[in-house]
Design a protein that fits this description.
The protein has 441 residues and is α/β, with parallel strands linked by helices. The protein contains 13 helices and 20 strands. A hairpin with a 4-residue loop joins strand 19 and strand 20. The longest helix has 24 residues. The chain is globular, with a radius of gyration of 23 Å. Bound molecules: iron/sulfur cluster (SF4). The site of iron/sulfur cluster has 9 residues, from helix 6.
């Protein structure tokens, strides 16, 4: 670094969208203070690695990324989930790291940066964009509404890593949403560890926004976000009873008719062992009711197969549930013990080959259901959001397609005057296992 050049920071962001939002906040602060963000370790004065510690493969990936940064640069700060849960393990493997902080420890990260690489003092330096630094394409953005989780699911160590639920005041969230929309964002993806619990920790405390008093509560937030001229999509909604109140808001168009609701299993015995709500018959009734209220509703969920103690009977119960619930989008994992998770001490570990076999059977059943659900779109007209315009086709997403995790809508043909971030009307004409094909209306 020369005397006049701004200090340069290399940044690596690993893990889930919630971690990505943390990275964006740290990068925004770094840019605001005049640091330059560079893409190569070799030319950086310092590297920050934002780690993930969700499952063992993520831990390995994080430890490897720290090692790579140390070899290439030598001056490394570590932050994120792994820093919160396994600081000693990081130090044992990489004693040269300059500092370690936990998840969403923005101020602590900045203190460490200041200690090892002081910020430049130039009042004219770096006018940065009001929406901050974004790692997603310009037309969609993740909006984090809370941190941490008050649940105690036995397979999960996120509450230990990220702490108890802390909701952001509703006014602060709405100001950020408005800023994002002003900057050109067309879809807001609401994320947190537990979106349905928003505001519970502050007892739905009132906040002021635009001269009005608003409760910090998920239904209020959805109504307010629904005033913005963009798509709003809810992720990670725990199956609380009050989720039912969100469905009419979807039917009324305040928010996309898309519910990402991790159910994890359908056997009551296994759900109890997971410390999750265990009434799967009621869940089926609720899904039926939701579809009556909002026929457009697209349901996404995730499940774990091969959880300790899962018998063939439990697994069959899960397959039966899938057949009855006919969810649109489903992700599944074979259970993998995460260090520190309570489930590791449960009896009845399922052998690896049985877990993998059940995962394959599960995905086979769901593949057919997903195909059938997509077939139901044929002949329907819908609005899609353009993600990319390629030589001879448009790649877009419909209301039922979250970026990165769901399918896409392909529209063949050369298009004039259409850009990423535009909404266009199409008629669905074809489908395969994951994606839809359409023609312009
Ligand atoms: S609700 Fe989600 S984040 Fe919270 S403990 Fe359960 S799995 Fe983990």
């Amino acid at each position: 670094m020369t005397d006049t050049a701004p200090p340069r920071i290399g940044f690596v962001s690993l893990g889930c969208p919630k971690n990505l939002v943390d990275s964006e906040r740290i990068l925004t602060q770094l840019r605001a203070e005049g640091y330059e963000i560079v893409a190569r370790y070799e030319i950086a004065d310092l590297v920050i690695v934002n780690t993930c510690g969700f499952i063992d493969t993520a831990v390995d990936e994080s430890l490897d990324a720290i090692g790579e940064a140390l070899v290439a640069n030598g001056r490394v700060l570590v932050t994120g989930c792994l820093g919160a849960a396994r600081a000693e393990e990081i130090l044992a493997r990489h004693p040269q790291v300059l500092g370690i902080t936990g998840a969403h420890a923005y101020e602590a990260v900045m203190e460490q940066v200041h200690a090892h690489l002081p910020a430049p003092h130039d009042p004219f330096l770096d006018l940065f964009l009001p929406q901050g630094v974004k790692l997603t394409p310009c037309h969609y953005a993740y909006l984090k509404i809370s941190e941490g989780c008050n649940q105690r699911c036995t397979f999960c160590i996120i509450p230990r890593m990220r702490g108890r639920l802390v909701s952001r005041p509703i006014g602060e969230v709405l100001v950020e949403a408005e800023r994002l929309v002003e900057s050109g964002v067309r879809e807001l993806l609401i994320v947190s560890q537990d979106t349905g619990a928003y505001g519970v920790d502050v007892r739905y405390r009132a906040d002021i926004h635009g001269g009005r008093v608003l409760e910090t509560r998920i239904t209020t937030l959805v109504r307010e976000l629904g005033q913005l001229p963009v798509w709003v999509r809810l992720h990670y909604v725990y199956p609380y009873p009050h989720v039912d109140n969100l469905i009419p808001l979807m039917a009324e168009g305040h928010v996309l008719p898309y519910l990402d609701i991790p159910l994890q299993h359908a056997s009551e015995r296994i759900l109890r062992a997971m410390k999750r709500p265990a009434a799967s018959e009621q869940m089926l009734d609720r899904i039926r009711r939701w579809r009556e209220i909002c026929p457009e509703l697209v349901l996404r969920s995730t499940f774990i197969v091969g959880f300790p103690g899962e018998t063939e009977e439990d697994f069959d119960r899960l397959l039966d549930f899938l057949q009855e619930a006919r969810l649109d989008r489903v992700g599944a994992f074979a259970y993998s013990p995460v260090e520190g998770a309570a489930a590791n001490t449960l009896p009845g570990a399922v052998p690896e080959e049985v877990r993998q076999d059940r995962l394959t059977r599960f995905m086979d059943v769901q593949a057919q259901i997903s195909r059938d659900r997509l077939a139901g779109w044929i002949g329907r007209c819908t609005t899609v959001l353009v993600d990319a315009v390629e030589d001879a086709r448009i790649v877009a997403r419909g209301p039922g397609d979250a970026p990165e995790i769901d399918g896409q809508v392909f529209i063949e043909g050369a298009w004039e005057g259409v850009d990423a971030g535009d909404f266009i009307e199409v008629e669905i004409t074809g489908y395969d296992e994951h994606d839809l094909y359409a023609e312009p209306v």
